[in-house]
Amino acid sequence: MARIGVVASEDELALAYDIRREVFVEEQNVPAELEYDELDATSVHLLALAEDGSPLGTGRLIHGEQALALTGRQGRVLLGRLAVVKAARGTGLGAELVRAIERAGRENGGVELELHAQVQALGFYERLGYVAEGPVYDDAGIPHRTMTRVL
């Protein structure tokens, strides 16, 4: 069983970045300059660790003024950069991370959550109550679709 918490140190943030590098940059060939951005500095980052302390998954929450600027909707927060290492996929950890980010969203004033799902992950998010809206679009060479859920 993994423990999921808000990143509380530079060491934990480095572990979250390592997971993102492994999943997005190495596995999915997302350019590193697109993966890490200015939103990282103001986002709430979550990290899932195994009992032995090894990193298993991460995600971030964009909230406040940054979320308003990106979505144009008061009370809408954004889930992003959800990544689970290959060895932990299929264990339910991704869903646990989404729920933890939703809790963080509510704690940070969110009443609705938006995410930009890779098309191949639409079913995963639909099972968690998210609804797709708008057309498919390209993000870093990967087809995505916007999804939302009331918190």
Write structural notes for this entry.
- Keywords: Acyltransferase, Transferase.
- InterPro entries: Acyl_CoA_acyltransferase, Bact_Acetyltransf, GNAT_dom.
- This is GNAT family N-acetyltransferase.
- Residues 3-151 form the N-acetyltransferase domain.
- It is globular and about 40 Å long.
- With 151 residues, it is of the alpha+beta class.
- Strand 4, helix 4 and strand 5 (112-118) form a beta-alpha-beta unit.
- The chain contains five helices and seven strands, in the order E-H-H-E-E-H-E-H-E-H-E-E.
- It has a single domain, classed as Gcn5-related N-acetyltransferase (GNAT) (Aminopeptidase).
- Helix content is 34%, strand content 34%.
- The protein has a seven-stranded mixed β-sheet, with helices on both faces.
Descriptive tags:
single chain; 151 residues; alpha+beta; Aminopeptidase; 7 strands; 34% strand; globular
